[in-house]
Specification:
Blueprint (H helix, E strand, L loop, with lengths): L14 H9 L7 H11 L4 E4 L6 H16 L8 E6 L3 H14 L7 E4 L6 H8 L2 E6 L1 H9 L10 E4 L2 H6 L3 H10 L5 E6 L4 H10 L4 E4 L22 H11 L5 E5 L2 H13 L4 E4 L5 H13 L4 E5 H4 L4
Parallel strand pairs: 1-6, 1-7, 2-4, 2-5, 3-4, 5-6, 8-10, 9-10
Helix pairs in contact: 2-3, 3-4, 6-8
The structure holds adenosine monophosphate.
């Protein structure tokens, strides 16, 4: 993260949140945080043009925690005070994990719901209501239609990765959800890119938004050394095995273009003694979580993923 002069103290967040950030060793706000947090504390709607990796989760999460903790309201059954929509389960889970860290000293309830798994525990966690709900659109609407969730107490609404949301065909779900929310609310839309569909959606759901934009972090951090190897296709795999065997990598992520190749390569690497797991859209939710868990805990060193499946992985 680039070093900035402004400190979290000066962005207007509560002392408690600033203290938590200090304990997390967040020395300085990232550019998106520096720009967005003061605007959000002043309750502006926001159009944020930023990718994952820029610190955008804290940029929207911290002001929400700030407002909710000062309001001292209790959640109402089946409802939420803040709703964060994310396009994928992985991103939703990751946002939930970040909120847990940022809000660990604040007595607020939050939960994450997504499709591809049984709904019972999600229904149970919504029964008493929550302060913050992170959700993927499809399952959220399902639970709404079954009357397990109500939207009439939503004061804060975040649409994360709006471009991705549209790519994945969620536009109708998102429009439906938006139409169910109270009109009196603060709305934030984040997107890495601004195709016409996102602009139209932003115009529809944001009210006098302020705009903040940060350079894409596709520009890798300086500590990442990059190399290109030109090689015949048939030698690619043996070359990769050699690199992996020779070096002492902690964690390696390999990207493939297709789901099939991801699975096959992980299998081949494992056979050659390099413990690998694959992550792609054809795997069930539990298989994906298992693969990620093994990778995170270090039981598996190599993760082979399609770029789609790996979006939102920290
Ligand atoms: P995000 O773009 O929200 O996915 O955040 C990317 C990563 O940056 C996460 O691992 C965060 O924990 C981390 N991060 C966010 N804000 C800061 C900050 N101000 N200082 C240091 N790390 C941060």
């Amino acid at each position: 993260m680039p070093v900035h002069k402004t400190t979290f103290n000066r962005l207007g967040l509560t002392d408690r949140i600033v203290q938590t950030l200090k304990e997390q060793n967040y020395a300085f706000p990232t550019p998106i945080q520096e720009q967005a947090i003061p605007l959000l504390i002043k309750r502006n709607d926001l159009l944020g043009i930023a990718q994952t990796g820029t610190g955008k989760t804290a940029a929207f999460g911290l002001p929400i925690l700030h407002h909710l903790s000062l309001e001292e309201k209790r959640p109402v059954a089946k409802s939420t005070r803040a709703l964060i929509l994310a396009p994928t389960r992985e991103l939703a889970v990751q946002i939930g994990e970040s909120l847990k860290v940022y809000g660990r000293d604040i007595p607020l309830r939050h939960t994450v719901i997504f499709g591809g798994v049984g709904q019972n525990s999600q229904v149970t966690s919504m029964r008493r209501g929550v302060d913050i709900l992170v959700a993927t659109p499809g399952r959220l609407l399902d639970l709404f239609n079954q009357k397990h969730i109500r939207f009439d107490f939503v004061n804060y609404f975040v649409l994360d990765e709006a471009d991705r949301m549209l790519d994945m065909g969620f536009i109708h779900d998102v429009q439906k959800i938006t139409s169910l929310l109270p009109t009196e609310r603060q709305t934030l839309l984040f997107s890495a890119t601004m195709p016409p569909g996102v602009i139209r959606l932003a115009n529809k759901i944001l009210h006098n938004p302020r705009e903040v934009s940060v350079a894409p972090t596709a520009t890798p951090v300086k500590t990442v050394e990059q190399k290109v190897i030109f090689i015949d296709r048939e030698k690619k795999r043996s070359c990769l095995s050699k690199i992996l065997q020779k070096s002492t990598f902690d964690r390696v992520i390999i990207f493939t273009r297709t789901k099939h190749k991801a699975g096959k390569l992980a299998e081949q690497l494992t056979k050659s003694g390099i413990k690998s797991e694959s992550l792609h859209g054809d795997k069930s939710q539990s298989a994906r979580q298992k693969a990620l868990g093994l990778f995170k805990s270090g039981k598996v060193t190599v993760l082979v993923a399609t770029d789609i499946a790996s979006r939102g992985i920290d």
